[in-house]
């Protein structure tokens, strides 16, 4: 793109959108104008891509969450315009970095599941894969977190406050959505998904809910102002706010409305497109279309799809079901029973009575099949789609789908052998594994340009950004002192940058020459931030006993949002912050260790944390973390994993070697063996260091401000049998961390471990994952517009 065009574009959009000249423009106005300039540049390619895709078989990713983060930097990188735009702005005395930092994160997701969807759409675009993402345009994304006096507080996320430059509202493609008690508009906002160095531009279509009419004129004339706009507010409530998923929140009527809202709009959109090509002939529908359900959240799509085919398109029920079974695929993202969605049939009946009838009919079809296969009634119960006055969404999704997949090897094995074993025995061929991945564009090329340049220098070109398996070719340098030295210099530079950012954001000063031990992810008991905290507290006591304790100076960094209603998670936030305070106030301990809890952990913060890390903490109870994807982001940034035998940790360590990571703790099969007579009290009474740290929860050493938080944590460990096996893993954790500290003394040895992680990380590219979905589930091929 010509430099002149960029400047002209910025000036033009500053004028028409904000009514200002460049010299008077605020940073957010420049951000908007620059974004629109780029958007303008790609619109033709975007339309051409959609046309090309529409001619062939297409895949649709249905997800209630997309945790996109910021768009500008990523889009510039992917378009190959980053350096150019940086120069142009520099000539205008504007720092691109500052403009990037002004952008609000699009935080339309909770955590891994939503971020995975974001990586997937980016990879699909990069690979020219005909995939469209469908989701919800929440006015408010995941809440913003503050830490006040060590407690988490929350406030609303208003990411749209400056207007959002990166989407186009498509008023002519509105869908009308009917609930039994209200009818609303689904307005599509199309977000361009720009792949890396390709002309193809994919689409993420986010639906916004609006009322059919802005207000009731007659009520308004009667001066009933509130009543006049109440229908509008009720409609807008549907896409107002993202639900935090990490809690047993099922049964919420608004959440069900959200799910139906975006499912119905997406089904109607797909069927409309089909009809423009094939009229009312649905015989080839599944040949041309496939839809992936990102967890059970969009599973009501199955019922809506059936309703449209049967009631509106006059397709026979049996044929419609056969088509649906070809059309849908289902991804499971957790084995936690509490997370499996079930909807009360009275709720479904109240909002969409016809869908309940369809659910019963599908249930009947399944029962017939099982009876024919000789299943007895007892066995059949577990398969039922409608049972106990509930619709079991996972059973519906498994029955009516072409494939069911888990998200890491261990996770898929647990689904097959335990959680969904009955289904696996019924349909062994439906089950597949698709180990998660991450996009190397955002998670290395964009967030760590220093390391990226170094890799490019070593490999001679940038091909690795599109084919991450090429990183393996770095292995030949694994004994090259100069290469290892440069790698560690880059790491130091990224740690300096992170330390500066933390100072600016948190007002906390950390030493970039200390060891950065990082645990960043949603706060949940199964992820065991509490175990990490107890370990640190033990370390504190050991330093008190022996001020010369031989460990490297270490900064423990945490970042995590706790679901607002999840009391124990909030207690853990406070506990970590109290430990931080205890250490800060201690002259001896604070010389050796420091704890920082960064507030409002989000995608853009993550982009600074992963590159500035020395150790990746992935310590979930074995069997509980389906995959994890943060673990892959650390690895790609040349950071060893300290983790349990869980989720993708296992594959990470397999790829880069056990000797280059720290894998410890009870395995799934160990837990199976001990779970019946596990007694945490034995550990508590027999291990003095365990007792010493656990007692701080109740002996007044640490203060929870009278909330009862800490006593509750104590009870979880001691009285409620420590469901996540913290105490059973405590000594193993300590031993493994001791090894980390020992190994870190040998700088070269450590650098080699970091480097091994980098060159072994290729397989965790989401490009690989998307290729597997494309080949093994969706049966789609690249369709390039070039
Ligand atoms: C939901 C719930 C709801 C009830 C209470 C506990 C609980 C805990 C977790 C969840 C998350 C459900 C789905 C999810 O986000 N899974 C995540 O998906 C990621 C992408 O596949 C994967 O890397 C994470 O390991 C997995 O937790």
UniProtKB/TrEMBL annotation:
<keyword id="KW-0119">Carbohydrate metabolism</keyword>
<comment type="function">
    <text>Allosteric enzyme that catalyzes the rate-limiting step in glycogen catabolism, the phosphorolytic cleavage of glycogen to produce glucose-1-phosphate, and plays a central role in maintaining cellular and organismal glucose homeostasis.</text>
</comment>
<keyword id="KW-0663">Pyridoxal phosphate</keyword>
<comment type="similarity">
    <text>Belongs to the glycogen phosphorylase family.</text>
</comment>
<dbReference type="GO" id="GO:0005737">
    <property type="term" value="C:cytoplasm"/>
</dbReference>
<comment type="function">
    <text>Phosphorylase is an important allosteric enzyme in carbohydrate metabolism. Enzymes from different sources differ in their regulatory mechanisms and in their natural substrates. However, all known phosphorylases share catalytic and structural properties.</text>
</comment>
<keyword id="KW-0321">Glycogen metabolism</keyword>
<keyword id="KW-0328">Glycosyltransferase</keyword>
<dbReference type="GO" id="GO:0030170">
    <property type="term" value="F:pyridoxal phosphate binding"/>
</dbReference>
<dbReference type="InterPro" id="IPR011833">
    <property type="entry name" value="Glycg_phsphrylas"/>
</dbReference>
<dbReference type="GO" id="GO:0008184">
    <property type="term" value="F:glycogen phosphorylase activity"/>
</dbReference>
<dbReference type="InterPro" id="IPR000811">
    <property type="entry name" value="Glyco_trans_35"/>
</dbReference>
<dbReference type="InterPro" id="IPR035090">
    <property type="entry name" value="Pyridoxal_P_attach_site"/>
</dbReference>
<dbReference type="Pfam" id="PF00343">
    <property type="entry name" value="Phosphorylase"/>
</dbReference>
<keyword id="KW-0808">Transferase</keyword>
<feature type="modified residue" description="N6-(pyridoxal phosphate)lysine">
    <location>
        <position position="633"/>
    </location>
</feature>
<dbReference type="GO" id="GO:0005980">
    <property type="term" value="P:glycogen catabolic process"/>
</dbReference>
<protein>
    <recommendedName>
        <fullName>Alpha-1,4 glucan phosphorylase</fullName>
        <ecNumber>2.4.1.1</ecNumber>
    </recommendedName>
</protein>
